[in-house]
Structure formats: C-alpha cells, structure tokens
Amino acid sequence: MLNEKMTEHGDEAVSSDRISQSTRERDGRLVVDLENYVPHLLSAVNNALSGGASKVYLERFDIGIAEWRVMSMLAIEPRIQASQICDIIKIDKGAASRALSRLDAKGLLGYDAVVTDQRKRIWWLNEAGLSLHDTILQVALGREQKLVEGIEPQDLEAFLRAIRTMVRNVNSVR
Asked: I need a labelling partner for 13 at 20 to 30 A (CA). Which of 41, 59, 117, 149 fits?
C-alpha cells in the first residue's frame, strides 16, 4: 500500500508504505496523528519513564536518571572517558560531566587522568559504585518488566528490531 501526503509546504509528495499514517486531516489540513507519529510516541514513553525513574531513584538511592545512565554505561564499559559515555548513551557533555561529578562526590567512582591531557579522565565504578549499580539494576529491570507486560514475545522482538533500526537511522534525521 503506497500513500502520498503533501509536506507542510505543499510542494512535494512524501511516499510511505506504512499501514498507519503519522498524519490525519483536520479542517482541510494535515496535522500530526499523535497515536501514530513515531517521534511523539518515543518521546511520550521516554519522558514518562525518565520522570518516573528519576523520582524512584532519587527517593530510594539519591541518584538521578542521568547518574543512573552514566553508572549503567560504566558497568557495561569500565575505564572510559566522558566523551565516550556521551557518544554511546546520547547524553550531552554537560549532563555527563555533572553526573560524573555527583557520582564521584558520593564516592562511587574511580578515575585516572589521561597522560596526554590531565583535564581528561578515564572513569570506572569502584566497589561501592558496582554494588549500588547492582541494586538499582534490579529496580530498573522490574520497571522494564512492568513496561512490557502484556506484550507478546514475538511483538516485543519485532519492536526491538524496529527500534534498533531507528537508532541506526537517527543520525540521518538530525
């Protein structure tokens, strides 16, 4: 099925082989259909998850969502620089720097200065950081389980394939 829609400028058609459409008509013009517009759906889920996680992690562990994301990355890939953390988890440099500073102040990190540039550091979770990571991970996995509750396994796998493709494609839409 091939559908054509006019762009906001009305000067070119955009082809789509989607079954559901990301726009609908309202008063003779195309508007975003929030039930089918992928960027909205991703943002809505992410905002709700991040807000909820931040509240839970702050209340229970005095760790915000940015700190948790950095901790997760350091557990996955210990001994990396902040710039690598930013690249992999798509967090801005300021947020990563603040998260690393807070985690370091809490005594959860170890680091070495980079020989060629003493301002740069290679970071890892120390034993206290790894222990806290393991505790928070159990809460995070429980939250993930609740999020995917009721989704058939084959549907979840199809979603994961689709979202991985979107991750690969995201740089082309920046």
From this structure: 41
